[in-house]
Amino acid sequence: MKVLTATEIEEVLRTHPQWKMQEGKLMREWTFKDFVQAMVFVNRAAELAEAAGHHPDIDIRYNHVQLRLISHDTGGITQRDATMVASLDSQLETTT
Questions:
Q1: Residue 74 belongs to a domain
Q2: Is residue 1 part of a domain?
Q3: pTM of the entire structure?
Q4: What angle do CA 84, 23, 18 make, to 5 degrees?
Q5: Is residue 52 in some structural domain?
C-alpha cells in the first residue's frame, strides 16, 4: 500500500477536522466524564480496529483518550489509516 501524498493527507484532515497530524501520525483526542466512560470508548475503538485489522496507538489518561494512526509497515499514512479515521469518526461519535 502506498503512502498518501501531503495533498491526500490534507484532504483526510479537511474531511475529518477533529484529527490532526502529530509526529507523522494522524491523531485525535477525546475527553469523557470519567475513566469508566473512557474505557467503554476504548473498548469500542478496539473492536473496530480488530475488525479492520488495523490498530491505533492508544493513550489513556483517566478520562482523556488519544488515538494515533500510522501504517508502520509502510512508514507513513496510507489509505488504510484514512479508512480507519472515517470508521472511528462515524461509529464512535455516539459513544462520546
A1: yes
A2: no
A3: 0.90
A4: 45
A5: yes
Q: Is the dihedral of CA 9, 10, 15, 18 positive or negative?
A: positive
Q: For residue 67, what are the β-bridge partners?
A: 28, 58
Quote the CA–CA distance of 50 and 10 in Å, as a whole number.
26
* Structural domain for 23, as ranges: 6-92
pLDDT in tens, the chain (96 residues): 899 999 999 999 999 999 999 999 999 999 999 999 999 999 999 999 999 989 999 999 999 999 999 998 888 999 999 999 999 998 887 555
Amino acid sitting at position 22? Q
Phi, psi of 92 (to 5 degrees): -110, -5
H-helix or E-strand spanning residue 65:
strand 64-69
Domain tally for the chain?
A: 1
CATH number at residue 13: 3.30.1360.20
37 inside domain: yes
